[in-house]
Amino acid sequence: MGEFDVLAMGRCGMDLYSNDVGAPFVEIRSFAAYVGGCPTNVSVGTRRLGLRSALLTAVGEDPVGDFVLHFLRREGVETGFIPRKPGRRTPAVVLGIEPPDRFPLVFYRDNAADLALDIDDVLRAPVRRSRVLFVTGTGLSAEPSRTATLFAAEQARATGTRVVLDLDYRPTLWPDARAYGVNARLLAAYAHVVVGTEEEVEAACGDDRVEAAAERLLAAGPEAVVVKRGRRGSVVFSHEGTAEAEPFPVEVYNVLGAGDAFASGFLYGWLRGWDWYRAARFGNACGAIVVTRHGCANFMPYEEEALRFVEERGGL
C-alpha cells in the first residue's frame, strides 16, 4: 500500500463565486472567495472522504498562493510537494451563478504558476508512493506542464501506480480543439481510467458521437472510460461491457465542481475494489450533493455525509 491513496496533479487557484445568485453577470455586486481547480478539488474531495491525498501543483510568490496553501493544509491535504514559482502568479477564476443552466466563468490564467510544473517537480513528488496519480487535460495546455504531465503518467505506469485522467477540457485555454484532442489521446494511452463529460469525450476524439468516442478512447489502452452525464447520471464503458449508473435527483443550485465531486466519489469506490457501477453511482451521489451548494473544494462532502446521503436514497 502506498504512502498516499491519491496524488492529484495540475491546476489550482482562487475561485470567486457570485454571491448574487440568479443575477446576470453584469449585475453581480460581490463574490465569495474559495479554492478551486479540478485536481485541487479532487485532492480535497478525496481527503474529506477519508483517503490520504497529496497535491502536485504550483503557486506564485503571492497572497493568492498563501490563500490556497492555507486552505489545503487546513483540509489535511499534503502540500509538501507544491513549489513556489518566482515570476509566476497563482491564477483565479470568476464565476456567475444563474440556475438552472447558466454558469458563466472567466479564467485568469496568464502566466499561471501551475503551468510551470516541470520534470524536476515530478521527480520530487511521491508518484511511486501513491496508489493513484490523477492528471488532467488542462495540464497539457502549455509547456513545461505538458511534458511534466506526460512524464508523471509514464513514471506512474512504470512503477505500478494507477493513472486516472480527467479530460478537463477548457476551450479558452486551447488555440484549437484539434490540438486538445491530439494531446488528450496521447495522455489517455497511459491511463487506466479516463473520466469526462460527454462534451469532453467527444472533444478528445473529434467525434460528436459520444459512444463511438468513448470506444475509441477505450481502444487506446484504458480499462474504462467514465462519462459524466449530469442529470442523467453516468455511464462506464469497459472491456467487460457498459454500466449505466442512475442519478440522484436534486434541485440544482450550482453545477460547477460537481464533476470533481463525482471523480472524488468514484475514486473512493474504485480504490475500495467496488465494481464500475457501484463506484460510478457513489460518484453520482457526491456530485449531487455539490450541485446543491455554492462552490467547489470548500463544499465537497465528507465520507459519513455522502454515505448517509446514499443510504437515505436506497443505497448503491
Give me a quick take on this structure.
This protein is of the alpha/beta class and 316 residues long. 36% of the residues lie in helices and 20% in strands.
Average pLDDT number: 96
SS element count, helices: 10
CATH class: Alpha Beta
Low-confidence stretches: none
CATH homologous superfamily descriptor: Ribokinase
Which topology does CATH recognise? UDP-N-acetylmuramoyl-L-alanine:D-glutamate ligase
Strand order of the largest sheet: 4-1-7-8-9-10-11-12
What is the terminal-to-terminal distance?
26 Å
Number of spatially distinct domains: 1
CATH architecture: 3-Layer(aba) Sandwich
**Biggest β-sheet, characterized?**
8 strands, mixed
Secondary structure class reads alpha/beta
Order of helices and strands: EEEHEHEEHEHEHEHHEEEHHH
Shape: globular
- Beta-strand fraction estimate: 15-25%
Radius of gyration, in Å, reads 18 Å
Helix content: 25-40%
